[in-house]
Amino acid sequence: THRTRVKLMWKWLTRSELSTAAARDSRTALRLESLESREVPAILIQLDYTYDTGFFKNNAAAREVLERVAADLGNSISANLASIVPSGGNTWTASFFNPATGAVTNLSNVVVGANSIKVFVGGRALGGGAAGVGGFGGYGVSGSSTWINRVQTRGWSGFAPWGGSIAFDTTKNWYFGLNTSGLSGDKLDFYSVAVHEMGHVLGIGTSARWNSLSSTGAFRGTNAMAVYGGAVPLSSDRAHWG
User: Fold this and answer.
1) Which among 115, 106, 119 is positioned nearest to 52, based on CA atoms?
2) pTM strictly above 0.85
């Protein structure tokens, strides 16, 4: 099922799920009790179809699968990302590859909500055998040091982008399904490719944080090693699992 697929894939892509044990009171009297802080909200991956020229607009099934991917992965991530809300002299510009053309696009003073990232999506003929191309966006920022730090880090110690973009190849024979019951050997599973490219937006194989945890052909993030049982082998480009 799609949930099985995303759990298996995402265990390789990011930290393992957190588990907590609730404290119990052995007394019989009823009382109110303060809960420990759990500042680990899910991340809302907001899909923006502004630059889509028909790949999604004319295909409800494609939108449904991509939106499921965004929900599945977003609900698997725990982070506390500050909002990006420009005002006064605190301004910024988001830069990303236009999914319809591949050209660099700049948008001024985009508002990004707390615990959210924005991903521009669309389709075009990619060529070269690529089924999809995705990555996080860049930025330019001006204003107070606090504002600059907010745009750069979003108040989080890990990799924390504002978002990015993904383009899917319009010439592929895609399978748009939420399970594999109709998937045949002559079709390409859109769900799997979308998870893969969304992983690149989230820094897998593309971020400085990923590079800092990779050495001698293997990924050495603590949680990934715990799942794999040791350093995780990487492909020759060091941007994918071996």
Assistant:
1) 119
2) no
43 has a pLDDT exceeding 70:
yes
Strand, helix or coil at 109? Answer: coil
What residues contact residue 211 under an 8 Å CB cut-off, 6+ apart? 238
Cα 221 to Cα 198: distance, rounded to the nearest angstrom:
19
Alpha carbons 132 and 115: distance in angstroms, whole number: 25
- Other C-beta atoms within 10 Å of 19: how many? 5
Q: Quick one: pLDDT at residue 240?
A: 94
pLDDT tens-digit map of 183-239: 999 999 999 999 999 999 999 999 999 999 999 999 999 989 999 999 999 999 999
- Taking residues 14-20, report their average pLDDT: 31
Q: How far apart are CA 137 and CA 165, in angstroms?
A: 7
Query: What distance in Å separates the CA atoms of residue 117 and residue 130, rounded to the nearest whole number?
Result: 24
Apex CA 112: angle with CA 70 and CA 5, to 5°? 10
Strand ranges across the sheet with 163-169? 44-48, 116-124, 163-169, 132-136
CB 172 within 8 Å of CB 188: yes
